[in-house]
Specification:
Layout: H1 6-10, H2 12-29, E1 36-42, H3 47-55, H4 64-68, E2 71-75, E3 94-99, E4 102-108, H5 113-128
Parallel strand pairs: 1-2
Antiparallel strand pairs: 1-3, 3-4
């Protein structure tokens, strides 16, 4: 049977449950207005974008920075219309820190893994209130502070 019987749909308890389910799905699908995000502006053939993809992209969503400001990608030639930029993006990759659809800060280019993390953490802290976790306690093995969050679950 492709459709539930009419008596099933007319049951008041089921209608309320279905209505709640629909509202919940709409609520959770919406972007939070005040949430920060990191938008990576890229273009096909960008060697530095490819390097970022190889070195950072797999780990970014698992880091504190990635949890605080999830990554979204945008094509240089097809920028999101609703995005309010401080100036035109001309280089790829360019990393935009965005809050409520407005650019708060940017990092132009990819300076390499060793420089990316402190630069992006600093920009997130300065412009959207990101607080980095405290440094590991003395005696903590070095591998413990390099493990992304959520990987030991």
């Amino acid at each position: 049977m492709a459709f539930p019987p009419l008596t099933y749909l007319l049951n008041p308890g089921r209608r309320i449950t279905a209505a709640f389910g629909c509202l919940a799905s709409v609520f959770f699908a919406m972007d939070p207005l005040d949430a920060a995000e990191l938008i990576m502006v890229e273009q096909p053939g960008c060697a530095w974008c490819a390097r970022w993809d190889a070195e950072i992209a797999p780990i970014y969503p698992k880091t504190h920075e990635g949890k605080f400001a999830p990554l979204r990608r945008a094509d240089l030639r097809n920028m999101p219309v609703k995005l309010k930029l401080s100036r035109r993006v001309t280089f790829t990759p360019t990393f935009l820190i965005v809050e409520d659809g407005h650019e708060m800060a940017r990092l132009e280019g990819y300076p390499g893994e060793d420089f990316f993390w402190p630069l992006i953490s600093g920009l997130l802290h300065e412009h959207v209130g990101f607080e980095a976790p405290p440094p590991p306690a003395k005696g903590t093995p070095p591998a413990a502070n390099t493990t992304p969050i959520g990987t030991n679950d």
